[in-house]
């Protein structure tokens, strides 16, 4: 199996097996985009027919020769039918929504035809495939593609094929996407600490304004600043009263790469990914600080996508 896999990989690495330039969508499949080759079953049937015809010639059996030629014509019509089933189909695909590493990208593909048929088709991307039938003029199929690691997942081309009507040959055409889908890191690690917050230097304007509001009055103590003395209240009570301010803790969660030095490179990314999701779930404002990027504090779906994208596009070499 390994030898066969290496051979297939080397064949696919040849220039004429690589995907061509990006196709405009929808792609109308024409004659030059369709390929037809016999399947394993088709090769077996062809071998049987060849032996039948050779035996018929050897024994001068006209009835067997007639049967052989009739079967060969049927097989030839099956090849032509497979070619015609793909001709003039309109194929278009959308870029999948981002997923987390280890999940499957959902690639939606729309196939349009002028005349619906009960023929079965297959969409494939490398080893991933899905079967469907054109039961209406517009059919939508979703191809699931496993995304094993974070980053940009390349989508070079997908294959639309059919083995109808007799399974003797496979007819197929390619849709060149030449695009990529975003894969977020896999969230893992310990939960977001409840007391995690930013320092005073990262407190917002509203937080600073709240900290300037007096919380209560108390008697003067040695060492208190004179500017905190409430002179009007002191005059009413004949004792020095001092304004004590409420200490407002920052509501911003600081997700800092530098605080996770005990973890490995990919473990840091997974941990920050988990904290971004949990901070958003708890509706807290959070900021993300990476070695070469600082995402300001915020919240909401757009802010979460920005943070997850920054983590997904971190370089793979530490």
Number of domains: 3
Number of helices: 7
H-E string: HEEHHEEEEEEEEHEHEEHEEH
Low-confidence stretches: 199-213
Portion of residues in beta strands equals 25-35%
The mean pLDDT is 84
Any idea what the radius of gyration is? 34 Å
Pairing-aware structural class of the strands and helices? alpha+beta
Shape label = rod-shaped
Helix content: 25-40%
Distance between the termini: 34 Å
Largest sheet: 6 strands, mixed
How many strands appear in the DSSP assignment?
Answer: 15
Defining traits:
3 domains, 318 residues, 4-stranded antiparallel sheet, single chain, alpha+beta, 6-stranded mixed sheet
Question: How would you describe this structure to a colleague?
Answer:
- The chain is α+β, with helices and mostly antiparallel strands.
- It has three domains: 17-184, no CATH class; 205-245, no CATH class; 250-312, no CATH class.
- 31% of the residues lie in helices and 31% in strands.
- The protein is built from seven helices and 15 strands.
- The protein has helices at residues 2-12, 40-59, 62-86, 205-211, 231-237, 265-281, 301-312; strands at 27-28, 35-38, 90-93, 99-100, 104-112, 120-125, 128-133, 138-146, 151-162, 169-184, 214-219, 241-245, 252-256, 285-290, 293-298.
- Strands 2, 4, 6, 7, 9 and 10 form a six-stranded mixed β-sheet that branches. It has a four-stranded antiparallel β-sheet with strand order 1-3-5-8, with no helix packed on it. A three-stranded mixed β-sheet has the order 13-14-15, with helices on one face.
- Helix 6 (265-281) links the parallel strand 13 and strand 14 (285-290).
- Helix 2 (40-59) runs antiparallel to helix 3.
- The longest helix has 25 residues, at 62-86.
- It is rod-shaped, with a radius of gyration of 34 Å.
- The two termini are 34 Å apart.
- The model is unreliable at 199-213 (pLDDT under 50).
């Amino acid at each position: 199996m390994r030898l066969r896999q290496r051979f297939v990989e080397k064949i696919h690495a040849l220039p004429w097996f690589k995907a061509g330039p990006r196709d405009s969508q929808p792609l109308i499949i024409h004659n030059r985009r369709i390929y037809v080759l016999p399947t394993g079953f088709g090769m077996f049937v062809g071998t049987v027919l060849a032996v039948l015809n050779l035996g018929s010639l050897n024994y001068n059996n006209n009835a067997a020769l007639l049967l052989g030629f009739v079967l060969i014509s049927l097989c030839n019509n099956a090849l032509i039918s497979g070619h015609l089933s793909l001709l003039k189909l309109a194929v278009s695909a959308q870029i999948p929504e981002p997923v987390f590493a280890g999940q499957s990208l959902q690639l939606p593909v729309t196939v349009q035809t002028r005349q619906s048929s009960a023929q079965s088709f297959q969409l494939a991307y490398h080893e991933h495939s899905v079967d469907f039938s054109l039961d209406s003029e517009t059919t939508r199929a979703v191809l699931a593609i496993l995304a094993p690691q974070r980053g940009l997942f390349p989508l070079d081309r997908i294959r639309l094929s059919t083995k109808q009507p007799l399974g003797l040959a496979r007819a197929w055409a390619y849709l060149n996407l030449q695009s990529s889908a975003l894969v977020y890191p896999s969230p893992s690690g310990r939960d977001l600490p409840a007391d995690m917050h930013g320092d005073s230097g990262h407190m917002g304007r509203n937080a600073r304004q709240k900290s300037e509001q007096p919380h209560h009055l108390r008697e003067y103590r040695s060492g208190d600043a004179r500017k905190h003395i409430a002179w009007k209240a002191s005059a009413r009570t004949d004792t020095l009263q001092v304004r004590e301010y409420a200490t407002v803790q920052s509501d911003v969660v600081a997700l800092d790469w530098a605080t996770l030095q005990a973890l490995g490179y990919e473990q840091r990314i997974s941990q920050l990914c988990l904290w971004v999701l949990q901070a958003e779930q708890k509706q807290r404002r959070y900021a993300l600080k990476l070695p070469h990027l600082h995402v300001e504090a915020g919240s909401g779906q757009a802010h979460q996508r920005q943070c997850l994208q920054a983590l997904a596009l971190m370089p793979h070499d530490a």
